[in-house]
Design goal:
This protein is α/β, with parallel strands linked by helices and 243 residues long. It contains six helices and 13 strands.
């Protein structure tokens, strides 16, 4: 699997994101955005795609548990993994964090390398549990005023593999339009290229193309896609391409 940078939203007193620390995380593939309260966090979540949210429970100006519950209650954010950190190590604290909706509890202090490995493991686990379906159809994808129509490699509620040999940089915004079998009204989605896969002779069964993560659904596209995925999922297949 290709290396992909992690966009992390850190909610704490900014001690984790000094210029020196920020540079250190960036060298290890983690781009940190900082918020010192929930209002700032909400603005960042609304403005840019975030891969993971880390909340310092010991930062008393915010209620980590409440923020976790709130994030998980919002449809467009509920799939973002939430990590709660604390110097408190009791089982009661850990259980409370998980019950509030946290996907992971990590004890402070945090050696940077160890912490990043924990984040990557969590994101990989999320990827493995994203169900996908194969469909026989085409997708029209556009970058600016240029568009191309290709076959769909596979599809889930969080992204799509486009069967193309085009070279597109990770992070590129794309507009997607495709029809589901038995449904003439097109699905319209704004997405982001997150991975490029090329044909490998040593692994001929592996699909190739562009992995696109869905960022914003238009109209009732999300509801219709969820309904289709629920009816068509092959739970033996797990997505590896666009998370």
């Amino acid at each position: 699997m290709a290396t992909q940078s992690i966009r992390m939203l850190s909610i704490d007193d900014r001690t984790m994101t000094t210029d020196l620390d920020r540079a250190g995380y960036r060298k290890m593939g983690v781009h940190v955005r900082s918020a010192s309260n929930y209002d700032e966090a909400q603005k960042l979540l609304s403005a840019d795609p975030i891969d993971i949210i880390v909340i310092n429970m010991d930062y008393r100006k915010v209620d980590a548990m409440q923020i976790a519950r709130h994030v998980k209650s919002i449809a467009e954010w509920k799939e973002i993994p939430v990590v709660i950190t604390s110097v408190q190590t009791s089982a009661r604290v850990r259980i409370s964090a998980l019950e509030a909706g946290a996907d992971l509890f990590v004890e402070q202090p945090l050696p940077r390398q160890y912490f990043i490995e924990k984040l990557k493991q969590l994101l990989e686990q999320k990827t493995r549990t994203t169900e996908r379906v194969n469909i026989h159809g085409e997708v029209t994808w556009s970058i600016g005023d240029k568009s191309e129509t290709c076959s769909v490699g596979d599809l889930s509620i969080s992204g799509m593999l486009i069967a193309t040999d085009a070279n597109v940089a990770d992070g590129t915004a794309v507009a997607l339009s495709f029809e589901l079998p038995g449904n003439r009204k097109p699905i319209e989605i704004s997405g982001e290229v997150v991975r490029t896969l090329r044909y490998n002779k040593s692994n001929p069964d592996r699909l190739s193309g562009l992995g696109v993560r869905f960022v914003k659904f238009h109209g009732d596209s999300e509801r219709r896609l969820e309904k289709y995925i629920a009816k068509s999922t092959d739970s033996s297949n797990k997505m590896l391409y666009y998370l």
